[in-house]
Amino acid sequence: QVQLVESGGGLVQPGGSLTLSCSASGFTFGNYRMSWYRQSPGKERAFVAVISADSRETNYAGDVKGRFIISRDNSKDMLYLQMTNLRPEDTAVYYCRRGERWGQGILVTVTS
Fold first, then answer.
1. What's the CA gap between 25 and 67, in Å, rounded?
2. Integer distance in angstroms from the first to the last C-alpha of the chain?
3. What pLDDT digit, counting tens, does each position of 38-60 carry?
4. What's the rounded Cα separation, in Å, for the pair 35 and 21?
5. I need a surface site. Which of 4, 70, 100, 110 has the fewest CB within 10 A?
6. DSSP code at position 55
């Protein structure tokens, strides 16, 4: 069955960096567009970034553009989110998504 497992979250100071990973299994990863979403405390889940199946196209939410980079390695069935210049408002549970399938989420906390 389709499985998406996020990793790499944790506690980071403002201005710091963190890279999230999403390990995919149960489907042909290289055939699908993949996305990252996040849900901050008290807020609805929101789009962060998307990448096409062949990595040629990416798109970002306005508040992360220029700070986050989405990438993938189809040979390893892995999706990544490089996050730099992190802000307290980036604190959220981050989710990997393929269509209607979601990972369990991973917590990122940005605090001094």
1. 28
2. 40
3. 999 899 999 999 999 999 999 99
4. 12
5. 100
6. S
Q: Rounded to the nearest 5 degrees, what angle is found at the Cα of 87, between the Cα atoms of 109 and 78?
A: 65
- Residue 69 host element (H or E): strand 68-73
Q: What is the mean pLDDT of residues 18-28?
A: 97
Asked whether the beta carbons of 83 and 104 are under 8 A apart, the reply is no
Please say whether the dihedral angle defined by the alpha carbons of residues 71, 69, 64 and 87, taken in this order, is positive or negative. positive
CB 20 within 8 A of CB 73: no
CB contact set of 64 (below 8 Å; sequence gap of 6+):
48, 49, 83, 90
Report the distance separating Cα 29 and Cα 80, nearest Å: 13
- pLDDT band at 72; cut points 50, 70, 90: very high
Nearest to 19 by CA among 91, 89, 93, 70: 70
Residues 6+ positions from 55 with CB-CB distance below 8 Å: 71, 72, 74
Exposed, middle or buried by CB within 10 Å (0-12, 13-18, 19+), for 86? buried
